[in-house]
Design goal:
alpha/beta, homodimer, 17 strands, 7-stranded mixed β-sheet, 8-stranded mixed β-sheet, 457 residues
Chain lengths: 457, 457
């Protein structure tokens, strides 16, 4: 009896050891496959250089859908299809911002914020009132701001180590300034970009108008160098600005698509793991980090798992979502379809924080599920992934989480460089490093493998 | 009595709590000071753009010494001085590599390896013999290699997650190929660069000649794209190459300097903590990551600790070492001086792995000392530094470690991008991100603070 017990103990230990070894070996096979033969970097080059930026509703976004479908097929997905999504179409048109800092007007680099209404293409000229915060603005006498262009000079805080904390801290000035300003009679808004950059790139991004407000003020972002110059000039004396912009939201929605590819599960094909990124981008640069990276990494998960001959228990889907930037219609369409079809989603994993070196996997799910994942932390450490303590998912998969209670996870790459290029003309292919991009894809594929093998109950 | 015991317990708990809080607060102050007001990025710009590359013995290296002395003074060091070092001077001169892959000769991007002897400026033409490894070379009949130019086509392994492992694996082909080749009568050597780059930059770096060999073969490195083309051509048929190079080691050593700045310790000034990087670089690019970054970070440690008014118990020294790349004369001079003056060195900390986002601190010291440091790991985690499990120091501080048994530590930044630019014309200021550079400096200053406060016995 003693002997039998011992044998069982040895056997169990050996099995556990074997299981661990098997997982480590598979993690390594996935990493080797992607680091040595990954096609995500080349895919990103093609997306960036032949499609370029691809705002929802534009012909470029339609071209990106065609690219995505082809790339997904080339990756070896068992099935590839397009899922219909109606998306808003915001039109930028011509725009300019001129500042009179001393004497004469001079054009400066500027971008209207996404979803905003412009000046109807006509110059709108007014004195500039600079404030450092919403509170400072609200404290000014109404006569001092009425008819003025308000410069919200709130700085992106560089003291946060995780730059997403700085973004979270500052982004209300992009999202909400026209509403705050309109309530006290201002004529327009200029903001300091949501930027860690030591340069002059303006950063676009979405804003919104409160339904209750009849007035829709134009809003433009300027880069840090221009903002510094404007700040200095405002401190010295009177400054005026001339905003001219044609931008507006089109009345009609435009038909578009999510691109979906999958590997059919062998044992429980009805259970689905989703990995994804978003295919649309802002209408500047090439949407390389945001979020071409997430798209090509998701496609790479399919390609690599196929290439190493892995036969997953569950169905694995890669989804290139449409319209994350200004509506999240793709995310909602995917979640609605999942609910309508009564799909069983095990987990959804998004990469939408740039194609940088991975550091962690954010987990937004029950504590029990988090702890289930965390017991495999040591498997990720050789791939420089150590952080499983943050709640992160992704905008595109959040409707799945909210409507369908699907656990979600988010790739957490190093954040130092993201807000230098985010939503700027400088978010181009050349800003992405091939090894960093591939390592991120490897970690996504490893996570998918892990959930396939060990479930997430 | 019970009450007293309890009081002592509470008191001790409070003190421990207080100590922890104090450390956390100081870590934050250091980080805030550097992320918000750090001058290291601007210092790096000046070094890269006004001095540029600065190989030991060159006028540029002398200019870099002057720059370093000034920067150290501006940082607020209590004392700044130059330490004499005699360094070798390797002269590159004109060089070209032409390949006849099909029909006619065409010039390709190539760099002679550092310390190598060229062709005396005269063209040296021979057939190319390609081998994948030393073993493959040794297995060839001598008649097949005699008088030939050997192309050592060993690939930098991209499957290592830590790219320094790939470098360690491949670097013998740069360091030793001319010796291996000469022993069997070859006329010259071409190597595939030690490069993770998906580009055509050749990477220079040091090589050596064995004393026992009378023949000093010329050695040139080519970038990955040229190497791929050469590989393909060699597989097809006969290929020849024409090497022309003037490079040679100058007979005489040249006087140069380590640049040293220090903050005098308040309680035990005789005990010294050294932080450093190396001031010399290869003679291409701007030596931005290698190792301008380590220099400006070391200066930043002095500046930031001064700026926040920290009064260290021990003396803190920042050292810009001369001649790491091809001789390590600066490191030896510093260690020799330490021995001669009977200096008491507590620890030496080097940054020479690029100005990338920090991930860990390598520790090369006794297990007891390692464990002493590791008990403060949690303090570094908010700064994304989690890895204290590797033995790393630095070339410059290694003589201090070997001759003087001084514990050494090395900053471990993310390694993914380093070997794309290392020793290439592309190691320029623009490759360095301001936040990544500053975070590395913050971690160095935090480490120095920690050792000042808690010792390292």
């Amino acid at each position: 009896m003693k002997r039998t017990t011992l044998s069982i103990a040895i056997c169990l230990a050996a099995m556990t050891g074997y299981g661990q070894t098997q997982d480590s070996i598979m993690f390594r096979r996935i990493s080797d496959e992607i680091l040595l033969h990954g096609t995500c970097y080349e895919n990103l080059r093609v997306l960036c250089k032949t499609v370029g930026h691809r705002l929802s509703g534009t012909p470029a976004a339609a071209k990106a859908v065609t690219w995505g479908e082809k790339a997904m097929k080339e990756a070896g997905a068992d099935k590839v299809w397009l899922q219909k999504v109606n998306v808003p179409y915001w039109y930028r048109g011509k725009e300019s911002l001129e500042l009179r800092l001393n004497g004469s007007y001079k054009k400066v680099p500027a971008l209207s914020l996404g979803n905003s209404e412009g000046t109807g293409g006509k110059p709108m000229e007014a004195q500039v009132v600079m404030v450092g915060s919403f509170d400072e603005y609200k404290a000014l006498p109404e006569k001092d701001v009425k008819g003025k262009i308000v410069f919200f000079n709130y700085r992106f805080r560089q003291d946060f180590v995780n730059s997403f904390d700085g973004y979270g801290d500052a982004v209300a000035y992009r999202w909400n300034s026209p509403n705050v300003a309109a309530k006290r009679g201002a004529a327009g808004v200029i903001i300091r970009s949501m930027s860690t950059g030591m340069d002059d790139h303006p950063h676009t991004g979405s804003m919104h108008y409160e339904d209750s407000l009849a007035v829709k003020l134009p809003e433009m972002a300027i880069g840090n160098e221009t903002a510094d110059a404007l700040e200095a000039a405002c401190k010295k004396g009177a400054v005026s600005a001339r905003m001219t912009s044609e931008c507006h939201m089109m009345k009609d929605m435009v038909p578009s698509f999510n691109v979906i590819g999958e590997i059919k599960g062998t044992e429980q094909p009805e259970r689905i793991i989703t990995v994804g990124g978003h295919l649309d981008s802002w209408d500047v640069g090439e949407g390389a980090h945001d979020d071409g990276a997430g798209c090509v990494q998701s496609i790479e998960v399919i390609r690599a798992l196929k290439a190493i001959g892995y036969r997953p228990r569950y169905t694995i889907r890669a989804v290139l979502f449409m319209n994350e930037e200004n509506g999240n219609k793709g995310g909602h369409a995917y979640a609605d379809s999942a609910v309508a079809r009564k799909e069983q989603h095990v987990v959804a994993f998004e990469s939408d924080a740039g194609g940088f070196s991975p550091r962690g996997i954010g987990l937004e799910m029950s504590e029990a599920k988090k702890n289930h994942i965390r017991q495999y932390k040591h498997l990720f450490l050789p791939y420089n992934v150590y952080d499983f303590d943050h709640e992160e998912g992704g905008v595109d998969i959040s409707p799945l989480y909210h409507k369908h209670k699907v656990p979600m996870a988010g790739l957490m790459p190093d954040s130092q460089r993201y807000f230098d290029v985010h939503h700027t003309p400088n978010d181009v292919f050349e800003q992405v490093n091939h090894r960093e991009l591939k390592l991120g894809a490897a970690v996504m594929a490893q996570f998918v493998y892990l959930v396939c093998e060990h479930g997430l109950e």
